[in-house]
Write a structure and sequence with these properties.
The chain is of the alpha/beta class. Helix content is about 40%, strand content about 15%. The strands form 2 sheets. Strands 5-2-1-6-7-8-9 form a 7-stranded parallel beta sheet, sandwiched between helices. A two-stranded antiparallel ribbon has the order 3-4. α3 links the parallel β6 and β7.
Amino acid sequence: MRDPLDMTGKVVIVTGGGRGVGRGIAARFLEVGAEVVICGRKPPESLPEHAGRPAHFVAADVRELEQTLAVIVFAMQRFHRLDVLVNNAGGSPAAPAATASPRFSEAIFKLNLVAPLQFAQQANAIMQNQPEGGSIVNIASVSALRPSPGTAAYGAAKAGLLSLTQTLAVEWAPKVRVNAVTAGMIETELAHLYYGEGEARARVSATVPLGRLGTPRDVADACLFLASPLAAYVTGASLLVHGGGEKPAFLAAASQESE
């Protein structure tokens, strides 16, 4: 019996696959035998690779429709199929909601919501014509499920991405499954900008029930599951990868009061 996580012969596109969570996702699919195409505005210093097999890089700004189409065209010309799309590219710098400019907010929505929709549309057009269909995984964030002070537009865009995931799952079934991974606090090369370092990082980690920040591998494993036959009856779902979330603040406040 074939290992359900064996992706040999499958073709996977990971947007923003050159660093951070995206790099971890790309490396994980390479580990299980897939051919992986990554894209980003600039080439990474090194490509994700496994056992001497590197990912393929295409320069593309996912906010530009013509450039995302070029990624799809590359995959089809090179491999003649597309099995999995992971919409990972996204993010936002901090900006107070009261003073964020319309241009800034529009750019955040375009990167985190419009771009995944457009990329998914192009992937779906391919997958619908394949006997085995395909799988699309959108990388969302817990910012979609709780207040997101300092990144209001980002949180709202990710909430929209979860809604989009459910709708596309209905519209594109049964050929194409569409799911989301809703990630919590993840340890990447930029984690210090959000969670501090040393003792500060330890305090942040302590707020997570599992006692640590997540890793790109944690997110990648969730993506692999959702893209695999193990999730054959899973579509329109949001898989929480957040270590149990954040402990309610009132518990610590009540504990301090009783001391």
